[in-house]
Amino acid sequence: MQSFKDSIIVKKEEQVITQKTALKSSDTPKVQNEALDRMIEENKKLISILGDYKKLDEQVLAEGIQKIYDLEELKKYQIELIKLQNYLESQNKRMIIIFEGRDASGKGGAIRRITRYMNNKHYRIVALGKPTDTQRNQWFFQRYITHFPTGGEIVLFDRSWYNRAMVEPIFGFCSKEEHEIFMEDVVNFEQDLVRQGMILIKLYFSVSKEEQKRRFDRRIEDPLRQWKFSEVDMQAQDLWDEFSEKKYEMLRRTTSRSAPWYVVRSDDKHKARLEAMKVILNSVDYDGRNYSLDYEPNEEVNISVQRELLQMRKSKNY
User: Which domains does the chain have, with CATH numbers?
Assistant: First the structure.
């Protein structure tokens, strides 16, 4: 058996040597030349696209190229968002999308990507500032209700009435009693909206403390982003634990079957935007859906409220 095995190995080795010799003598130069020609053509094409890329910082270049791939991936879902918008218009349905999260959690960027190709006649972005003296003396929800959608319209709230759950009590903009009244009333308020036909989607963008600091530092250093940095941002890191406590209480007490929270981990902006789009698209059974796309949530990014609360009990990092 051993000599039979040895004879096979020897024959195979001889066959390989013969093949290599044949390649060297005939095909190798031809194959090598074709491969070299392809590389030269590819190199010319890349240089024509990238231009004088050597003057650019490699990291900046790499980020820019990655953004192109990210934008292309989002386009398939942005097409679906247009279909959803057309369906809401044709059926005279109303939709509210709430974007909540800490400062620099990526809310604004997500809103821009979601609405980028939508018909601007049928959506509005609402980002309210400080309430006026008149508004302070009104029913708390009143100033938000005035911005609610009409039939066939989507309203996207860049921060919402949930300011009273987190920001206002921490900075002393409301009393403990006002905060508690809100926490008791908001679930019923939202249930009434849904009962009356409103499609209500609540997205919480959850950024880690380290990533928030990195984004703040970038805002300070980059002249194009310095306008984003505010006095409130300066306190966000120092008040991290206080915000964590209010976030935990808000998610625990204000998620409901009719208006659940969707927690989106937003350290990776692209993945967060993609998951937010999936949540919105999955909320409505619209016409013409492209079923070849993946609408399943990425469980590393799209986190259930229960899982987020469990994580927060272990660590206040989110």
Answer: 1-55 (no CATH), 66-314 (3.40.50.300)
Q: How far apart are CA 153 and CA 166, in angstroms?
A: 28
Q: How do beta strands 302-303 and 123-126 pair?
A: unpaired
What pTM, to 2 d.p., does this model score?
Answer: 0.85
Helices (H), the chain: 2-22, 28-50, 58-91, 107-115, 133-136, 142-145, 167-171, 176-195, 209-221, 231-236, 240-254, 269-282, 305-314
In eight-state DSSP terms, residue 226 is G
Task: Name which of 62, 126, 68 is nearest 97 in CA terms.
Answer: 126
Residues 6 or more apart in contact with residue 28 via CB below 8 angstroms = none
* Mean pLDDT, residues 141-167 taken together: 98
Tokens of 201: 């989607």
Nearest-angstrom CA–CA distance, 193 and 190: 5
76-119 residue pLDDT tens: 999 999 999 999 999 999 999 999 999 999 999 999 999 999 99
Distance CA 95, CA 122 (A): 11
Name the nearest CA neighbour of 165 among 156, 157, 174.
174
Task: Please identify which residue in the block is written with the tokens 């097409």.
Answer: 79
What CA–CA distances, in Å, run from 180 to 100, 184, 186, 192, 250? 19, 6, 10, 19, 11
Tell me how crowded residue 240 is: count the other CB atoms within 10 A of its CB.
16
**Would you say 94 and 150 are in contact if contact means Cβ atoms under 8 Å apart?**
yes
Give the span between the Cα atoms of 119 and 82, in whole angstroms: 8
